[in-house]
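[job 0412] stage=complex_fold ligand=nicotinamide-adenine-dinucleotide status=START
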Amino acid sequence: MTAIPDITLNNGQRIPQLGFGVFLVEPDDTVAAVSAALEAGYRHIDTAEMYGNEKEVGEAISRSGLDRSEVYITSKLSNDAHRPDDARRAFDESLKALGVDYLDLFLIHWPLPTRYDGDYVSTWKALEEIYRDGRARSIGVSNFQPRHLRRLHGESEIIPAVDQIEVNPYLTQDELRSFCAEHQIAVEAWSPLGRGGVLGDPTIAAIARRAAKTPAQVVLRWHLERGDIVFPKSVTPERIQENIDIFDFGLSADEVEAISALNRDERTGPDPDTFDGT
Ligand code: NAD
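[job 0412] stage=complex_fold status=DONE, emitting structure tokens
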């Protein structure tokens, strides 16, 4: 079985660098998809309250027979639960839906600077309490820009373990990634394949031919070589297997650079500075 490297977070906890994402996986398809991923060797699942499939993720993990400690589980706070009391309740509901008594990582899904009077700091403080209680082994954020991270830094105690942000060859996020590196915040690259949109790129195709790998494998390898954490999504067993078969080859520094040079600062998702979560 494939050995997936770990990344050590700023609190000493370790996270598998490759995981499996379940955004837009229908609840009815989730048990089969997560079971296929666990069977293929993935040991890190990225879900969220808003994906509506935490219960099925938990069911697949429970059916796998793996010990809870062998699977790294991330979930995220819903956009309608930022008030501290709501955040505590939502966390409890995520645990219950997943059928577990702790999460490995719990994230604020979006900063929502135009909602809740722009107060994501009190939300973060609710996550700090959950962390101190030991019910989330690590806490972090998602879609936070440097200005949001700077504010947390100034007004709270715990530095987020991760920032989960959109990254792909057309959106390399160099500035935000450098900011995170300076502050010991690990980067998780969401939609690492650009939702499939980067896979027809001729530069990526040429590197894939040279490496005798697929464009998806080359793009995932590019993320790993840059040090980011990824969790591609697929419901197709062959692709689930393909996306984990990326530990038997490497990219040269020139190839990594050629893929990074494809950057167009082009998002597939909403802009975190204006997105209000609705
Ligand atoms: P992705 O970049 O992983 O792309 C998934 C799509 O790419 C699939 O639907 C499929 O069409 C295609 N694909 C997958 N493997 C392939 C392969 N081997 N060959 C060809 N095509 C392939 O996109 P995603 O699902 O949006 O992102 C991955 C995960 O990131 C999500 O499941 C979720 O966990 C996370 N995410 C987080 C946020 C956030 O706001 N924090 C937002 C979006 C996604």
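The chain is about 40% helix and 15% strand.
[job 0412] exit 0
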